[in-house]
C-alpha cells in the first residue's frame, strides 16, 4: 500500500506536473496576446495623441499666420496714420503761413487805406491841385510815419490828420 501511495503521488504529481507543463505553455501566449493588445491600445492612444498634437500645431500655424497678417495690417494702418498726420501738419503749417501772410497784407491794406484817407482829407482841406509827384512824395512820408507809429503800438485808425500836418507842408 505504501507503494501505491507513491504511485498515486507520482501519478498525481505527474498529472499536476502535466497541468503545470500545459499552463506555462498557455500563459506565455495569453500574456503575449494581452501585451500585444495593450501595446496596440497604447499605440492607438499615442497615434491619437500625435494626431491631436499635429492638429494643435496646425492651429498654431494658422493662428501665427493670422497674427502675422494682423501685424502687417496694423503696420499698414500705422503708416497710413503717420502719412495723414504729416499731411495734416503740412496743411497746418501752410494754413498758418497763409494766415500770417494774409494778416500782414490786411494790415498793410489798412495802413494804405488810412494813408489815402488822410491825404484825401488834406487835399480836400487845402484845395490844392492833385499833382502825382507831390501825391507820391506825401504818400511815402505818411506811410513811413504811420508804420513808425504802428511799431510804437499806435493803431493806424487812431492817427489823425492833425498828427500828420507837419509832413504834408
UniProtKB/TrEMBL annotation:
Residues 7-19 have a biased composition (Low complexity). Keywords: Coiled coil. It comes from the Bacteria. Residues 53-108 form a coiled coil. Residues 1-21 are annotated as: Disordered. This is Uncharacterized protein.
